[in-house]
UniProtKB/TrEMBL annotation:
SMART domains: AAA. This is ABC-type branched-subunit amino acid transport system ATPase component. It comes from Kaistia dalseonensis. The keyword Coiled coil does not apply. The keyword Transmembrane helix does not apply. Residues 10-245 form the ABC transporter domain. CDD domains: ABC_TM1139_LivF_branched. Pfam families: ABC_tran. InterPro entries: AAA+_ATPase, ABC_transporter-like_ATP-bd, ABC_transporter-like_CS, BCAA_Transport_ATP-bd_LivF, P-loop_NTPase. PANTHER family: HIGH-AFFINITY BRANCHED-CHAIN AMINO ACID TRANSPORT ATP-BINDING PROTEIN LIVF (PTHR43820:SF4).
């Protein structure tokens, strides 16, 4: 389907945000069409995590707009809202670091993920286990005892327990062995096929663009390039900057 023909689930316009005195994002604009996968790539320190955190209410917004559209396409401004309220509105995030409660069991992690949306717990629990069958066998294990890939699956499960229509993923493949990275990318695609829109930041630019409907390149807190995932993979400038040896920004 032509990506331009879809309505948006998220629209960010002219977003400015930062820490302390310093501004990090200098007017970022992106959109996430409903049920799509959108990739954000860019060099270290370009503001990718800051972008996801400000969308999810973890970094305060200093300018611009962040709008989530509900199932009836009614716009809701996320500016000034806290993460818990944002989760309840249908958006959740798997952060770059510390994305599971290490001292809790897998089951407790899933239960924690369910807190902002209390209704139909049993139904959501069944759906999450169906989507992530791998975690069925580890429900009573402490998250700290799991491998990196297993932990990432639990982090996905925890986020899915809130029944999000949009999931933000910050470098889900980071620090994982190549085969496990492949599992993370294919699982991301499966979750998307269940109807969840995905906005993901990745260092593995080529693999991420390969599953993305659309991609954005950030540089120093600004939009640098954008295009469909397929067009970006073939774009000489993207290749030069990020895909050259296939490993430049991935090392
Ligand atoms: N909590 C913080 N306090 C102050 N400055 C921060 C904080 N977090 C990030 N920064 C700064 O903001 C800038 C952007 O950081 P950010 O983490 O958003 O980049 P990134 O694109 O996600 O990088 P990476 O690829 O390394 O994850 C960097 O200069 C960083 O040092
Ligand atoms: Mg980051």
């Amino acid at each position: 389907m032509n990506i331009d023909a879809r309505s948006d689930v998220l629209k960010v316009e002219g977003l400015k945000a930062g820490y302390g005195e310093e501004n990090i994002l200098h007017g970022i604009s992106i959109r996430v069409p409903r049920r799509s996968i959108v990739a954000i790539i860019g060099p270290n320190g370009s503001g990718k995590s800051t972008l996801l955190k400000s969308i999810y209410g973890l970094v305060s917004i200093r300018g611009g707009s962040v709008t989530l559209f509900d199932a009836e396409e009614k716009p809701v401004s996320l500016v000034g809202k806290r993460s818990n309220a944002i989760t309840a509105l249908g958006m959740n995030m798997v952060p770059q670091l510390a994305n599971v409660f290490a001292d809790m069991t897998v089951l407790e992690n899933l239960q924690m993920g369910s807190l902002p949306a209390r209704h139909k717990y049993a139904e959501r629990y069944e759906r999450v286990l169906d989507a992530l069958p791998l975690i069925k066998g580890m429900l009573s294990k402490r998250a700290a005892t799991l491998s990196g890939g297993q932990r990432q699956m639990v982090a996905f499960g925890r986020a899915l327990m809130s029944d999000p229509s949009l999931l933000l993923l910050d470098e889900p493949s980071a620090g994982l062995a190549p085969m496990v990275q492949e599992e993370i990318f294919s699982k991301t695609r499966e979750i998307n096929a269940l109807g969840v829109s995905i906005l993901m930041v990745e260092q593995r630019a080529r693999q991420c663009l390969a599953i993305a409907d659309y991609g954005y390149v950030l540089e120093q807190g600004r939009n640098r390039l954008e295009g469909t995932g397929a067009a970006m993979i073939d774009d000489p400038e993207v290749i030069r900057l990020y895909l050259g040896g296939g490993k430049k920004s991935a090392a």
